[in-house]
Amino acid sequence: MNSKITLIGGIVVAVLAVLASSSVYTINPTEQVMVLQFGQHKRTVQEPGLHFKLPFLEDVVRYEKRVLNLDPPVKRMILSDKKPLNVDSFARYRIADPLTFFKTVRTEAGARDRLQAMVISELLKVMGTVDLNVVLSDDREIFMAKVLAQVNAQASRFGIDVLDIRIRRADLPSETSQAVFARMKTEREREAAENRAQGFELAERIRATADREVTVLAAEANKESEILRGQGDAALTKILNDAYGQDPEFFKFYRSMQAYEGALATNGTYMVISPDSDFFDYFSSVDAPDKSAK
Fold first, then answer.
1. Does residue 156 sit within a domain?
2. Do 83 and 158 fall within a single domain?
3. Residue 17 sits in the same domain as residue 49
4. In 120-273, where do the E strands start and end?
5. Is 176 exposed, middle or buried (0-12, 13-18, 19+ CB in 10 A)?
6. Sequence-ordered list of residues with C-beta below 8 angstroms from that of 229, at least 6 positions apart, any chain
7. Which of 29, 73, 148, 280 is the one with CA 20 to 30 A from 293?
8. Across residues 186-201, what is the average pLDDT?
9. Alpha-carbon distance 112 to 92, whole Å?
10. Are 132 and 81 spatial neighbours (Cβ–Cβ below 8 Å)?
11. How many CB atoms lie within 10 A of CB 17?
């Protein structure tokens, strides 16, 4: 009899324990819970702690409250300038409306598949409207904000709030990189040739200007020297005229002496001139020495 009572008591305790465990559940600070009754939504609980539910009649579905990561695979995209680009992107999102999330995608795996397709689709559309320079510049923030707004508008239908979408890395395919590098080299060589040609042109312009200035300065200097030489000659002529006016006979004698000195200065000079010539005027006026006196 006692053994039966003990058995019954043990069964009752076990049933009560099962009932208690089925009617109590806990929520972590990183979770949010939906309570379902026969598959129908009853309530959403987001406060952490100990909570109660109807045993066997109500079930709980747990979802993350934290920000979740989405890492789509690297996708080859074509830019507006027809260049292919391997784009590695990522997104950050959270479950904002658990009921809508449960009705549309039910699981986080299903949400990742939907969200990944949306992110890649919007990136393909937006990247097709920009060129490589925009992707590599600060303007990338502008079109990434457009991608985020478009994806968020679609994701809200699934109870998802997308917080951020960014491009982690964007690489040119190897075959495109070689072509781009070759074109960059050609462009730099062309710019160098243009700069060199401009330098030569500027050098020629400077050289021509310098030559013209030298010519002008030389002409002005020659002009000044001719003016000074003319002024000197005029002064010399005036002085000589003044001197000649003071004693014409002496001036004539002095000029004759200069002429004798110039004509007879070289050794071995022979001159055939008539003795009656004016050149020997002062020679004939001097008495010859008397040979008989010796």
1. yes
2. yes
3. yes
4. 160-171
5. middle
6. none
7. 280
8. 91
9. 11
10. yes
11. 10
Q: For residues 108 and 77, what is the distance between their CA atoms, to the nearest angstrom?
A: 27
139 shares a domain with 72: yes
**Taking a C-beta distance cutoff of 8 angstroms, is the pair 16, 43 a contact?**
no
Alpha-carbon distances of 268 from 153, 263, 265, 271, 272, rounded to whole Å: 123, 11, 9, 10, 13
* Whether residue 89 is found in the same domain as residue 129: yes
- In this prediction, residue 22 has a pLDDT band, given cuts at 50, 70 and 90, of low
pLDDT at 39 over 90: no
Residue where the block lists tokens 């707004």? 149
Give the CA radius of gyration of the chain.
Answer: 58
Enumerate residues 6+ apart whose C-beta is below 8 A from 282. 253, 256, 257
> Which residues, listed in sequence order, are joined to residue 86 by a DSSP beta bridge?
76, 171
Among 64, 81, 104, residue at a domain's last position? 64
Domain boundaries, position 21: 2-64
Please tell me the total count of domains within the chain. 2
Same domain, 18 and 93: no
pLDDT band of 291, cuts 50, 70, 90: very low
CA 101, chain centre distance (Å) = 46
273 backbone dihedrals φ, ψ, rounded to 5° = -135, 140
Q: Please provide residue 191's backbone torsions phi and psi, each rounded to the nearest 5 degrees.
A: -65, -40
